[in-house]
Amino acid sequence: MADSLNRDLSCTICAEMYTDPVTLDCGHNFCKACILELWGAAQGTVSCPQCGQQFPRRELMTNQLLVTIVASLRRLNLEAGAGDSGLRCPVHSEQAKLFCSKDLKLVCSTCLALGEEGSPTLIPVEEAYTFCKGKLENLVEFLEKRLEEYCEAQSARGSDITETLELVKSLQENIEAEFAKLHQFLLEQENTLSDKLRRESETLVQSLEGNLKHISKKSSSIEKFIAEIHSLIHTEDQSRLLTDIKRFLQRSDLHNEPILQSPGMCVGEFNGPLQYAAWKQMLSIIRPAPAPLTLDSETANPCLILSKDHTMVKHRTKFKQLPDTPKRFTFCASVLATEGFTSGRHYWEVDVENMSGWIVGAAKESVSRSDDVPLTPANGFWTVRLWNGKVHFSHGSSGALCCADVQPERIGVYLDYEGGQLSFYNAADMSHLYTFSDHFVEKLYPFLFPLPNLERAEAEILKLFHLYL
Question: Residue 35 CB: number of other CB atoms within 10 A?
Answer without folding.
Answer: 21
